[in-house]
Design goal:
Number of strands: 12
Number of domains: 2
Order of helices and strands: EEEEEHEEEHEEEHEH
Shape: globular
Mean pLDDT: 92
Strand order of the largest sheet: 1-2-5-4-3-6
Low-confidence stretches: none
CATH class of the largest domain: Mainly Beta
Distance between the termini: 36 Å
CATH architecture of the largest domain: Beta Barrel
Amino acid sequence: MFTGLVECKGIIRARESRPPGVRLVVVPEVALRGLRLGDSIAVSGCCLTVVDIVGDMLGFDMGEETLQRTKLGQLQVGDAVNLERSLMVGDRLGGHFVSGHIDTVGSLTARHDSQDWSTCWFEVPARWTRLMAEKGSVAVDGVSLTLVEVQADRFSVMLIPHTLSITTLGQLTVGDPVQIETDLLAKYVARQLTGTEPHAPQRN
């Protein structure tokens, strides 16, 4: 479990093919002390297991499911990712409950910068916006954000200078893909009301 409060960015040092999966080697910009093999880290919002630690380099293996449902398989050496260690019992919950399970990959369709602030619009499949509500929460590339406006197949958020500075969201340009996780509590409510998963196909 995570909070969506990014601890630091990391840079991909290596991308190794390990059929049927891929190993990413990431170097955090700030030392994440106390990490052990088997620990969970949200890498741009996707929960991955630390499988290798060599100096300041962290290795993560990604299987077919992760490669298909996220954008991580498209990342290349030199790309930046957001990093957050898993929540410990007793920690402050400053963001919202983030599971690290990506729902869908959306894209940035518009960005309006005003001095040090930015308003961003992201497009997602329409079935996911019904789990969003204005002033509710969403995780974009692992960053906990407050929804400003929600439409049929897109939503907007306002990014403060701090978020733009310490996360990869500040580097986004129109057309860039982003990993989206909708609010965990909204999923459970939808499950109880409909009896189906939000992404389940409708039966005639």
